[in-house]
Amino acid sequence: MTPPPRAYLTGLRLLARRELTTAQLRARLMRRGLEPDDVDAALARLRADGALDDRRAARAYASAAVRIKGRGPLRVRRELDALGLDEDTVRAAVDEAFEDADEATLLDRAIDRRLRGPIRDQGHLRRLHQYLVRLGFGPAAALAALRRRRRS
């Protein structure tokens, strides 16, 4: 069964702008008022054509989150989970994104972006620590990086 051109072509246009997961594309097509059967058929054809690939979308998202946004592994994993991806896809994307990235360097960059001058007191240290944890770095790694920074 060939999907109606509208659902398929709309899906192609959306994927031409950026990588999307199957769940994201399904939601966007449904918001446009397309019939669920038409959307399912279009998604199946897009997957068969190679235009829609959850693994590729996950890798692209994770890579951008690390390289551009400077996020840590815990947050990247959480965000990929929220996109409706399966655990194996999430794990592979996070592992690949952090393959070339040094977490200590990412932590230092995040601290540099936030810190102006020395760490003033315990309250300041605590706020910086919370910021790093929200970025997705482990609490112990964040604290170690802040202690290194405080000593230097």
Tally of contiguous helical segments: 9
Give the amount of beta strand, in percent.
under 5%
Overall 3D geometry? elongated
Q: Which ranges are low-confidence, i.e. pLDDT below 50, for 5 or more consecutive residues?
A: none
Q: How many runs of DSSP E, i.e. beta strands? A: 0
Distance between the termini: 66 Å
The Cα radius of gyration reads 20 Å
**Mean pLDDT across residues:** 93
Number of structural domains: 3
Largest sheet: none
Structural class: mainly alpha
Q: Level of helix content?
A: over 70%
Helix/strand order, N-terminal first? HHHHHHHHH
Could you characterize the architecture of this molecule?
- The protein is mainly alpha-helical.
- It folds into three domains: 48 residues, Winged helix-like DNA-binding domain superfamily/Winged helix DNA-binding domain (Arc Repressor Mutant, subunit A), CATH 1.10.10; 43 residues; 49 residues.
- It has nine helices and no strands.
- The longest helix is centred in the N-terminal third of the chain and has 14 residues.
- The protein is elongated and about 60 Å long.
- The N and C termini lie far apart (66 Å).
